[in-house]
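User: quick one
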Amino acid sequence: MLSDPILITKNLNLWYGTNHALKDITMELPDKKTTAFIGPSGCGKSTLIRCFNRMNDLVDPCNITGSISYHGRELYGPDCDPVEIRMKIGMVFQKPNPFPKSIYENVAFGPRVHGIKDKCTLDQIVKESLTKAALWDEVCDRLSDSALGLSGGQQQRLCIARTLAVNPEIILMDEPCSALDPIATAKIEDLIDVLKQDYCVIIVTHSMSQASRVSDYTAFMYLGELIEYGETSQIFENPTVELTENYITGRFG
Amino acid sequence: MHDKMRTEMAAIHSSVSEMGEYALVMLTESLEALEKNDKQMALSVIQKNPSLTTQYQALEEEMFRFIAIYQPVAKDMRKMVCSIRLIYNFERIGRMGKDIARMIINFPDVDHRSHEKSIRKMGEVVTNMIADCTVAYQKEECDLILEMYKRDDIVDSLYEIVVEETIRWMVKEREMIPVGASYLIIARLLERCGDQACNIAEMVRYMISGQRPLVT
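Assistant: Done. Structure below.
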């Protein structure tokens, strides 16, 4: 379907114990585009994006079959290092979760873990990441202040900057705006629009209007299945599956 | 909240259908007035115009409000967008009925019934087209409006016939020239009503199927 997908899932199944949470998910995700996952609570959308950077490894018991390939490499293959994967495929969570450290340290943390020690290089990464996350202008004169003193929206952008600092290719966002006010939400949405020029952005959202505003492709999931996946304009103007139509028009969900 | 949205949407849908019927009545009655040379009936068509305008404005306002509040998508979005365009088409049709009626009122007192055949035929085809469009919208079914462009071709050829015939009898019967001039304008208005029907059919098909039919 896509000319150059960055992630390809094939017959992906996932069980939390006996709960069959993902059923035969086969899809291709485009690079340098925004893809939104929508669907009612518990439909598997967060579970799916957590598979993309192996966050489900931390859940027990969790069984996965099928494949996810990233640049042709099997994400769940024996030679795949989850730490490296999480560097290339970063995640931003629902609730902003900055470390209880300074703004600077929050962004520098990742690069340091990955071995960058040089102060000048770190300064540059911090500045670049904060700039890309549209936060630099607001915090450049108080980098050593605690990150916990920032507003919710600023904290979330800081978390995005922290993700960008390790030079990822894919940014996963799990309801990144659900704890934010409309202005902070709009800033994150504008940011997503800019980020997709350089990154593949994958976002899970409960807000249908947010999905339609920010994404190029939309995937609708229901009870662990991928029901419909296509260009956002098509999904919101003329969905082909009745279930999608019923969900996005608010007839259930 | 969605129940409220559905209820409001159903109310808008039925008001738009009613406006369509109202506009169609204005057009059919104006044609009936032409046929019977009934100036009283023509006057009643003109008197319907303010209500048509009021319906148009109220519905437009209502639909803008609906979009602002509910931000409809998919089928709901298509229905709203289509309905907004339809009321414009209906308003044009009703107003063309009024324009025809106004001309009948100003007709000189001459008997023109022998010349009516083609224009009456044209009126029949056009009003049937619009009636089918209104029903298709109301029932949300495409069956009646699939051949709209073919039907409009018939209207176009009837228009040419009316123009040709009218000019012919205007040359012969000079006292009929004022009536003939009105005939030409009425035929032109009917031809435009046919175009409006095509627009409506296209929108209703989009509303129902999400597909934009190829215009041929």
